Structure prediction request, 281 residues.
Amino acid sequence: MEVGIQGVLGSFHDQAASKYFKGKELDIKAFHDFRSLAKAIAEKQLDYGVMAIENTIAGSILPNYSLMNEFDLKVTGEVYIRIEMNLIGHAGKKAEDLNQVFSHPMALLQCADFLSQYPNMKLTEYDDTADSVRMIKEAGLTQAGAIASKKAAELFEMDILDENIETNKLNYTRFLIMKSRMNGHNSKPKKASLRIMTKHDPGRLSDVLVVFKEHKINLTKIQSMPVLGQPYRYAFNIDVVWEDYSAYQAAMKAIEKSTESIIVHGEYDKGVMPDYDKGSR
Prediction:
């Protein structure tokens, strides 16, 4: 099964793919950027694609919402990953031995408290967490470290010098599973990702939300996005969950009178966020 990810093997996207498709034999296709990944999904070069969409600390990944709309990507599932950061380096080294550390800028930010203990350590931004591990190994930078996942350390045969160094331990990223050549949805859905553009009249968004409330449809996400070519017009990316699929169908029918367009990016099973208190990963 060919699954596309952004980043390299050992990245958090790689972890998300392995978790969602657990037990399946995967051929991971790595893409340098999200646009290239989205294009490959749309052109059906893959069976599935995995794309991060939001993080509990950094919030929504707005460019990826735009890519979903631009390439008309279809969602068939979701998976949550707890983001655990680790200081990785060459064998025999300790954190105090390092004069430089490489990682994605978001990873460096999320480990600020730990890194503040080492004021002489130069922080250097890199495109990808896992790839920063590969780079310091192949370049022979014995006085440098990288911040990435445990899987990256294992993959590139490097040592974990300090583990779980992220400042906020309740750090999760939600990844969407995009169908391309294949559609993994095989059970009655409980969640949907929608893009709704309301009519340009006062109170239309409120009307839509009231309909969802009346049909006992719960919103788990609402994100406004500018409409290209229409200054100060906005569409809304909305995630909804329900217990009764027929109530969801009725609600979707009822909101038509308040909207100009409704795009269903996908209906799928709800993902389960790891239970931090129980030590789940």
User: Anything to note?
Assistant: The chain has three domains: 2-83+171-183, 86-162, 191-268. The longest helix spans residues 204-214. Residues 277-281 have pLDDT under 50 and may be disordered.
